[in-house]
């Protein structure tokens, strides 16, 4: 693949600074780029790497152009996104199997498989399932009875969709994802132990969602667990029954969301966040890594800590905690002085 820089600029709608005839044959990070690679720069923590980079050209923001004197540049209002667009258009060639149903696949009665689909080796598709056009199932996937998959979906090996799960269009599910398992519902019974509460609901996943490896999304106890359009979910996430997540939210690795909690649109839950059940997180809120959320989070709030609290309050509390040692020392000194004064008075 060979592209001139001006072609990339035209595709992105970016302004070029420098030689538009610069030839691009690859893409790479700053510290690995070679003389014919395109790279990008967004984080000033990596300025030393940028200055030493061998890349042919860079995608940068307007405020960072001075960091690259003499280098061809693409000036972008969102360098990370535009670099990703370049990779996707010219350098992203993932393997996709040819359409058709592999002879080892097991397809039940009443299954509807539309044109252009690829069903890999040893897949199992149960009775009444629907798979719409151009969807790909890699080997060893399981699609439960009456489940529905939209168009242009991609299921990597060993994805499990249990009965009546509904998946929208252009959804990507990575290996080990399990959607529609029972929620964790048990009613205590002093005589019998715990009585399993039947989980008779479903899961509904909207268009353009991506769920990465070994994440579990439980079906509703009653009603549905819902994942909104464009939401991205990282590896090793647990989403409990009847959770509702809005559109374009980011759920990072090892997050656990307890049942019936509602997450708004454009919310970010950073790594290892835990949320109790039956609370709400408002649109645009950010919960920082390893926070424990036990109550509602207002829209656009940034909360941190365990228990989670607004970031300003958390920092103030940490500052006070760091003063405890000096305060303890001062209190001890005052106690000694008071004791000495009392002794003098008694004498």
UniProtKB/TrEMBL annotation:
Keyword line: Acyltransferase, Coiled coil, Lipid A biosynthesis, Lipid biosynthesis, Lipid metabolism, Repeat, Transferase
Name of the protein this chain belongs to: UDP-3-O-acylglucosamine N-acyltransferase
Assembly description: Homotrimer.
GO CC aspect terms: membrane
EC number(s) reported in the record: 2.3.1.191
Domain UDP-3-O-[3-hydroxymyristoyl] glucosamine N-acyltransferase non-repeat region, chain residue ranges per copy: 22-87
Group of enzyme by EC: transferase
Pathway(s): Bacterial outer membrane biogenesis; LPS lipid A biosynthesis
Coiled-coil boundaries: 317-344
Pfam families: Hexapep, LpxD
GO molecular function, one term: N-acyltransferase activity
Domain of life: Bacteria
Chemical reaction(s) catalysed: a UDP-3-O-[(3R)-3-hydroxyacyl]-alpha-D-glucosamine + a (3R)-hydroxyacyl-[ACP] = a UDP-2-N,3-O-bis[(3R)-3-hydroxyacyl]-alpha-D-glucosamine + holo-[ACP] + H(+)
Name of the gene this protein is made from: lpxD
Extent of the signal sequence: none
Function: Catalyzes the N-acylation of UDP-3-O-acylglucosamine using 3-hydroxyacyl-ACP as the acyl donor. Is involved in the biosynthesis of lipid A, a phosphorylated glycolipid that anchors the lipopolysaccharide to the outer membrane of the cell.
Family annotation (SUPFAM superfamilies): Trimeric LpxA-like enzymes
Gene Ontology process terms (BP): lipid A biosynthetic process
InterPro entries associated with the record: Hexapep, Hexapep_transf_CS, LpxD, Trimer_LpxA-like_sf, UDP_GlcNAc_AcTrfase_non-rep
Catalytic residue list: 241
UniProt family annotation: Belongs to the transferase hexapeptide repeat family. LpxD subfamily.
